[in-house]
Amino acid sequence: MKATKLALETARSRCIQSNQDGMHPKLETIVNKHLNTHYQRPIANHTQQAFDAIRKQVEQHTAPLIFDSCCGTGLSTRHIAQNHPEALVIGIDRSAKRLSKTYSEALPDNARLVQAECADFWRLAQQAQWKLSQHFLLYPNPYPKSSQLKRRWHAHPSYPSLLALGGTIELRTNWLIYAQEFCHTFQIAVPKQPKISPELFTPKDYWTLFEKKYHQSGQNLYFCRLYQ
Ligand SMILES: C[S@@+](CC[C@H](N)C(=O)[O-])C[C@H]1O[C@@H](n2cnc3c(N)ncnc32)[C@H](O)[C@@H]1O
């Protein structure tokens, strides 16, 4: 069953169904809570090990650092690394299966793939005072049920770590409400800036397998770029 899941995901796509018809009414309350509390959940052992394994390389690298969080099979990590040869690009995903997908071209020398929980990896990176030049979040799981709000990255307790890592944050999603909430959350966290809104876009080339699948299924794609 599991072996066919990736193949099925690349073959068909349904529009997102949600019982929300706009931004979640509790978004501001939850975000403000996270911005004012310290996330204390213990770090998963495997993520601590993955962080320790790459830490030296990152800290010896004087070039810009880019994260591609929830990178799936790492196709986008490859694109980003090729487009930014001066940077070290780390693709992070919790799925060993996705990360193990092979491509005909070798992973660029300036790219790394790490199997880890993003929330924990971000916290460890924040504690180590890593600073990013860019942070990509391409098609994260939308968690579209209203009850799943706290699983979306902008309403997750690790959100302050995402911001603390700095850099320009780029989100891509096929769910407008996710993009609207993502922009709105940033405005709550970093007030006194011009209003930010998601933008509809048409990909020129496909950075990720999900981008390809959604676009070829006729779905709208949105991006938000947040400058810190
Ligand atoms: C919808 S897929 C998108 C993958 C890729 N960015 C793409 O567009 O093809 C979402 C990815 O997020 C990963 N993911 C979800 N939650 C995660 C977490 N807490 N930490 C790390 N990866 C996570 C999943 O394993 C999955 O590969």
In words, what does this structure look like?
- The chain is α/β, with parallel strands linked by helices.
- The protein has one domain: Rossmann fold (3-Layer(aba) Sandwich), CATH 3.40.50.150.
- It has nine helices and seven strands; from the N terminus they run H-H-H-E-H-E-H-E-H-E-H-E-H-E-H-E.
- It has helices at residues 2-11, 27-35, 45-60, 75-83, 96-99, 118-127, 159-164, 176-189, 209-216, and strands at 65-69, 88-93, 111-115, 134-138, 168-173, 199-201, 221-226.
- A seven-stranded mixed β-sheet has the order 3-2-1-4-5-7-6, with helices on both faces.
- Helix 4 (75-83) links the parallel strand 1 (65-69) and strand 2 (88-93).
- Helix 3 (45-60) packs across helix 6 (118-127).
- It is globular.
- The N and C termini lie far apart (43 Å).
- The protein binds S-adenosylmethionine.
- Residues 70-72, 76, 92-95, 98, 117-119, 138-141, 208-211 line the site of S-adenosylmethionine.
- S-adenosylmethionine binds at residues 70-72, 76, 92-95, 98, 117-119, 138-141, 208-211.
Short structural description:
With 228 residues, the chain is an alpha/beta fold. The protein has helices at residues 2-11, 27-35, 45-60, 75-83, 96-99, 118-127, 159-164, 176-189, 209-216; strands at residues 65-69, 88-93, 111-115, 134-138, 168-173, 199-201, 221-226.
